[in-house]
């Protein structure tokens, strides 16, 4: 009897929860705009534009100024260089690697000047960014590469991070191109592409 009564209470609780949850779904802002609390102050007209377009439209008069600089190495890029390198990267991803709009590009990198350029280039190409913590293990990087269906990995050709990236790509058992951020790249692995050379190829701007 006790077991039957318990099951009955559980059943009632489940039905009540389902009913309340259904009501809650219809109260969400996505279903009913009346549930959005608005200020008495006039609304701002926020333009519907992409991040890279918004950025590029506002940097023309600052072209010669420094946009980003590495505090450790002193490596820096002007706004003009950032725009040029980002655009070259975007064209390379589309024209040479044949990526399609909506494809995912993974970034495994610390906070360095090229990170900003990489993000702008990926977005300009109409691609999607999946970023990874540079202290991830190879297994964690592998899982994110698989879960995100990444088509390219951009990382550093430097020590532990490079080793982690290569191991993770090997675990996917796919020919996943790796673009490495460093001046010199070993030619032993044909999957390694030189980020610095890619971002400097002016011909891809067309």
UniProtKB/TrEMBL annotation:
GO terms for molecular function: long-chain fatty acid-CoA ligase activity. This is AMP-dependent synthetase/ligase domain-containing protein. The keyword Metal-binding does not apply. Residues 57-184 form the AMP-dependent synthetase/ligase domain. Keywords: Peroxisome. It holds the Pfam family AMP-binding. Gene3D superfamilies: N-terminal domain of ligase-like. Its main location: other. Coiled coil: none annotated. GO terms for biological process: fatty-acyl-CoA biosynthetic process. It is found in: Peroxisome. One of its GO terms (cellular component) is peroxisome.
């Amino acid at each position: 009897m006790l077991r039957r009564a318990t099951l009955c209470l559980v059943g009632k609780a489940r039905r009540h929860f389902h009913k309340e949850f259904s009501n809650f779904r219809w109260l969400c802002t996505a279903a009913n705009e009346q549930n959005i609390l608005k200020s008495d102050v006039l609304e701002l007209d926020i333009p519907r534009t992409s991040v890279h377009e918004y950025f590029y439209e506002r940097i023309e008069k600052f072209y010669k100024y420094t946009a980003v600089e590495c505090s450790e190495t002193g490596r820096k890029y002007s706004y003009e260089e950032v725009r040029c390198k980002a655009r070259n990267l975007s064209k390379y991803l589309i024209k040479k690697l044949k990526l399609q709009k909506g494809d995912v590009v993974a970034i495994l990198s610390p906070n360095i000047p090229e990170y900003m350029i990489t993000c702008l280039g990926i977005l300009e190409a109409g691609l999607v960014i999946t970023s990874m913590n540079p202290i991830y293990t190879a297994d964690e990087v592998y899982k994110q590469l698989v879960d995100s269906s990444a088509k390219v990995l951009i990382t550093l050709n430097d020590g532990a991070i490079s080793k982690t990236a290569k191991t993770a790509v090997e675990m996917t058992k796919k020919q996943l191109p790796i673009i490495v951020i460093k001046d010199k790249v070993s030619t032993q692995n044909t999957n390694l592409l030189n980020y610095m050379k890619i971002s400097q190829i002016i011909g891809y701007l067309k």
